[in-house]
Design goal:
Strand order of the largest sheet: 1-2-4-3-5-6-7-8
Oligomer: single chain
CATH superfamily: Alpha/Beta hydrolase fold, catalytic domain
Shape: globular
Mean pLDDT: 92
Number of strands: 8
CATH topology: Rossmann fold
Helix content: 25-40%
């Protein structure tokens, strides 16, 4: 296990590979652990990092640090401590919200971002996510396969207060309006079968600026990186392979990728 001390608190992380940096941010249910497969794929071309946010996994529990802005500050301090410059971010539900909070504060340090099952407004989150029983959420959201059980084995370590604090932060902000004009290329990825987060409406999607794009992975639920890792990792790899600053809408023109994920 790798860890660093940030402002007196232990932050757990893992790293694989060499190359340009990419940071994976987990969601409300689980920890860095469910990114292992995607990290292994990314590590062939990138230095892949995954860390546990405050209140999750093996990182310090501290209710004073559970707000989205304080979690984003964790990302900033982590990058500073590790000597990481411009970075790609891959965030899942909570992790995507934290990544957006980070982008809002430090847009010039983010090369691109992938936001998986990210709620764009508070009402798009199922009220059941507010339950303090993390195992109940695992049973509800996962496929319960041996692979999913292993990937989500750290869920019980989560502090429910960290979940509720982030949901309060989402309720208090207009997420999309805060970041849509910053110009950071962003690929939204949704599992249509996700019971926890409702996908943006067609009207909202059509209003995305050119540097934002949405892809729905057919058959995927709340954990597309676990439900269908091959499909998810192909999409991630193609997005990361785009030239710096390129719009993710260029993925639409890649017929090879379209054929592979049908």
């Amino acid at each position: 296990m790798s860890a660093i001390i940030i402002d007196g608190s232990m932050v757990h992380y893992e790293a694989l590979g060499r190359g340009r940096p990419i940071v994976f941010l987990h969601g409300w249910v689980g920890s860095w652990r469910y990114w292992i497969n995607s990290m292994q794929v990314a590590s062939t071309s990138f230095r892949a990092y995954a860390l546990d946010l405050f209140g999750f996994g093996d990182t310090t529990r501290d209710p004073l640090r559970y707000s989205l802005d304080r979690q984003a500050d964790l990302i900033n301090r982590f990058l500073e401590e590790m000597g990481i410059g411009k970075v790609a971010l891959v965030g899942h539900d909570l992790g995507a919200l934290v990544a957006f909070s980070y982008v809002k504060q430090y847009p010039k340090t983010v090369d691109r971002m992938m936001a998986i099952n990210c709620p764009l407004e508070y009402d798009s989150v199922n009220p059941r996510m507010r339950t303090p029983n993390m195992q109940e959420l695992v049973d509800w959201l996962s496929s319960r396969t041996p692979e999913a059980t292993s990937a989500l084995s750290d869920a019980a370590k989560a502090d429910p207060q960290a979940v509720s604090a982030s949901l309060a932060g989402l309720q208090a902000t207009n997420l999309l309006s805060n970041v849509r004009d910053l110009g950071v290329p962003c690929l939204f990825v949704y599992g249509p079968n996700d019971p926890a987060v409702t996908m943006p409406s067609q009207e909202k999607y059509e209003a995305f600026p050119n540097h934002m794009h949405q892809v729905n992975l057919e058959g995927a639920g709340h954990f597309p990186m676990i439900d269908n890792p091959a499909q998810f990792n192909r999409l991630m790899t193609d997005f990361l392979a785009l030239d710096s600053g390129a719009s993710p809408r260029e993925l639409q023109m890649k017929e090879e990728w379209k054929r592979r994920v049908r």
